[in-house]
Design goal:
The protein is α+β, with helices and mostly antiparallel strands. The protein is built from 13 helices and 15 strands.
Length: 477
């Protein structure tokens, strides 16, 4: 994103994001977590998600989520006088304490789950075999005994809305209705309009605000539900990315009309690498980096990321300093005058990168990243060097090291060349990291009854919850 030459190579254009990149700062080395939920948890709490049991990404009913004892960016900004609104994807749990209106937001409109339910194993997607073995029209059930084995996307809760500290209501989904791609399209359009509507409301009030808009597109899996394709690329995700780029342009133009662009910090970024499992039909494949979503190679955890603050952050600038998504919690907290609200009774992984944003390259405060896959340390980056951590039982002498400037795709290990002098230094880094984890042990997520706190559960949804609870309680011995 943000590079017209790469747009041309891909066969589509993102003019709004390209313009935004020219007006702000690009983080050339922004690291996230390998998938959506852990990255969002890291951004909201400033803590890597292995610390609070939120490193997993669930699709179906799960009965757990972000604990209310976690302190979010919305909470510290709210305590510092900010109005707070969340629109779009959340995906941090299906229990009430995990929802955004119970995590510091005054209002929230969001899907309880994520695109797996909404555009991957919904009816239209199943009919096109985006997923296989699901959907009554798509497989012979003569050998099916367990009718609970396959989740039904339409029986799960879809989109809810609610105010701070209150129960929520499911919207635009009636008893017996089926979730399909048309509903997915309508939901995304509605989120865009709600983001614009709340932007206007927040700008009209005499208080600072934090508007968090996390669109659910560009994930878009069925192909035949679109009337036509408008790019030479022709990929399903690319078409949605073009649409999203237009929506971002609408929001930025609205900020100009409202006269708030000059004193508003805007961040645009991805939450993980490309969803390469749907390549090349999505229109995206791994280019500069190897791997994608769920991988701990650079392609899974390096994303496009930009920040704009006119007059304060240098326009059209690029910084090569390492940044991790947790750093945004600490840095935006400082910009919002909320540093004193950041908790000191737990480890906060995010470091303050305001000097990097305000002064430019080489003023960053991070030269390392610990990369986890759920609860397992998978890789360590220090400066430009990366260690792929050997698995249990593997001989550490065969550990692979990479020089990320020379080998962005991690295809040419330089294990002897780096390991000879740096191997023990990486080991000591990991040892210090593990000793600190012993001092501040990892915890699990909050657990509870799924969907409690939704006022208008449909009968089919109640039945799905009961099925989940039964399966959870089935003896294992």
């Amino acid at each position: 994103m943000g590079i017209p030459e790469l747009n041309a190579i891909r066969g589509y254009k993102t003019p709004a994001m390209n313009k935004f990149a020219d007006e702000g700062m690009r983080f050339a080395r922004m690291y996230t977590e390998p998938s959506c939920t852990p990255t969002r948890v890291a951004f909201m709490t400033g803590r890597q998600p292995y610390r609070n049991g939120m490193g997993d990404t669930t699709v179906d009913i799960a009965g757990f989520g972000l604990a209310d004892k976690e302190v979010t960016l919305a909470e510290i900004l709210s305590e510092s006088g900010y109005n707070t609104v969340h629109i779009g994807k959340w995906h941090m749990g299906d229990i009430m304490e995990a929802w955004p209106n119970h995590q510091g937001f005054d209002f929230a409109a969001f899907p309880i789950h994520q695109q797996g339910q909404l555009t991957i194993f919904s009816d239209d997607a199943a009919n096109e075999e985006v997923t296989i073995g699901i959907g009554k029209n798509n497989y012979d059930d003569r050998f099916t005994i367990d009718n609970w084995f396959r989740p039904d996307a339409s029986h799960m809760v879809t989109v809810v809305e609610g105010k701070r500290g209150q129960t929520v209501r499911e919207v635009h989904m009636k008893q017996g209705e089926r979730w399909n791609q048309k509903k997915y399209d309508d939901m995304n359009e509605r989120f865009q309009q709600q983001a614009l509507e709340h932007l206007r409301k927040l700008a009209a009030q005499d208080k600072p605000f934090f508007l968090q808009y996390w669109p659910v597109i560009p994930l878009y899996n069925p192909r035949t539900t679109r009337d036509h394709y408008t790019t030479p690329n022709g990929g399903t995700y690319v078409e949605s990315m073009k649409q999203l780029d237009g929506w971002i342009g609408e929001i930025l133009n609205e900020m100009d009309k409202l006269g708030i662009a000059e004193n508003t910090v805007v961040v645009i970024m991805g939450d993980n690498g490309h969803f390469t499992k749907y390549s090349p039909g999505s229109g995206f494949t791994a280019m500069i980096y190897r791997g994608g979503k769920a991988d701990t190679t650079e392609g899974g955890v390096r994303v496009d990321a930009f920040v704009r603050w006119p007059g304060m952050i240098e326009a059209d600038s690029i910084v090569g300093d390492i940044v991790h998504v947790t750093d945004l919690f600490t840095s935006l907290g400082r910009f919002g005058g909320a540093t004193d609200k950041i908790p000191t009774d737990r480890i906060i992984d995010g470091v303050d990168q305001t000097a990097l944003m305000l002064l430019g390259e080489t003023h960053g405060r991070r030269d390392y990243v610990f990369i986890y896959s759920n609860k397992t340390l998978a890789a360590v980056v220090k400066e430009q060097y990366k260690l792929s951590v050997p698995g249990p039982g593997q001989n550490p002498i065969f550990a692979k090291f990479y020089d990320l400037f020379r080998d962005t795709r991690e295809e040419y290990p330089v294990s002897t060349q780096i390991g000879a002098w740096g191997g023990q230094e990486f080991v000591r880094m990991i040892q210090r990291h593990m000793m600190r984890k012993q001092q501040y042990p990892d915890e699990g997520p909050a657990r509870g009854r799924p969907y409690d706190g939704i006022e208008n559960l449909r009968p089919e949804t109640k039945a799905a919850v009961e099925a989940f609870l039964f399966k959870q309680s089935t003896p294992t011995k």
